Amino acid sequence: MSTKTYFTPEELESDDSAHLKDLLSSISDKVGDMEYPCVGAKAALNSKQLRIGVYNRMATDETTGLLGHDLKQYIAETIAADSEYMTLVAFFREEEPAAELDFENKLWAQLQLLHNSDNSSEPWDSEVSSNPTDTNFSFSYNGTAFFVVGLHPNASRKARRLGYTAMAFNLHRQFEQLREKGVYENMKNVIRDRDVAYDGSINPMLKDFDKGLEAPQYSGRHVDESWKCPFLAGNL
Hints:
Number of domains: 1
Radius of gyration: 17 Å
Structural class: alpha+beta
């Protein structure tokens, strides 16, 4: 019988494993902090739409297979619920804390392995570009575009700092749903104002790339325009 790696908050709360409960507490305490800036993450937590994936180390074949399976479940669940806030946080419980650049390299290595393993008929979402230097780029898996947020103990931005190494996945369609409802711009401005209060300054990546590239925002490390994304789409 295969090991379960995809959990709802209720499943983790009722699980006997102290380690799994600690994973849930780490993200619940972080996002549940009254001052935490991302109101979208708070909505996911408060409405029980947080989903937790639990894996060993980043960028291994084993993790990639499990995470790919769970991403498909998350995609199906989010679309079936027509959810604007459902989020999958993938924890890598055996990953040692890393410097920001090392974490960034691991994050992109994991995304590359996911892409390389994608055997769906149309791996890339037709609504977004597969070229990280394109302003319309978003990571895509199983024909579905994502926005990815890296979280780890040594992140320079307080909002990205977590006791475990993790990656949060949201469907790109969720942002489009919020735009269609006319709430996205206001929500974005609220998050930025809260981020300044939480961290003492505006996130420089949002300032630099708000009207530009998405890929440099994934890891959370401050990079300049000379940064080159290590990801390559295609049959590798």
